[in-house]
Write a structure and sequence with these properties.
By secondary structure, this protein is of the alpha/beta class. It has helices spanning 12-27, 45-50, 64-81, and strands at 4-9, 31-36, 52-55, 85-88. The N and C termini lie far apart (27 Å).
């Protein structure tokens, strides 16, 4: 049985630098969805092709006027895919 996993991060940089190999390994046995802002740093090509990628407009800086729409966008995606296990990878995303 494949589990549906989701990962949330404010930037692709952390994923590319620290979790690339882990994410690729997870995609062999599970359905993996990444919720990340890809505007500043693109997600590594091999990871981008292996996971279901959902861009969300979240930034590292705390800005309520941008954070609330990003939260709303993320909640819509979560309701759509219904992951069994969400993981929050960067401080603001958690």
């Amino acid at each position: 049985m494949k589990y549906s996993l989701s990962f949330v991060a404010t930037t692709s940089f952390a994923l590319n630098a620290f979790l690339r190999r882990h994410l690729l390994a997870l995609t062999e046995a599970h359905e993996v969805t990444m919720f990340v802002n890809t505007a500043a740093h693109p997600l590594a090509d091999d990871v981008a092709h292996a996971v279901q990628l959902r861009h969300i407009h979240i930034s590292r800086k705390i800005t309520p006027s941008q954070d609330l729409p990003a939260l709303s966008q993320w909640l819509r995606y979560v309701r759509e895919i219904r992951p069994e296990t969400p993981h929050y990878l960067t401080p603001k995303a958690g």
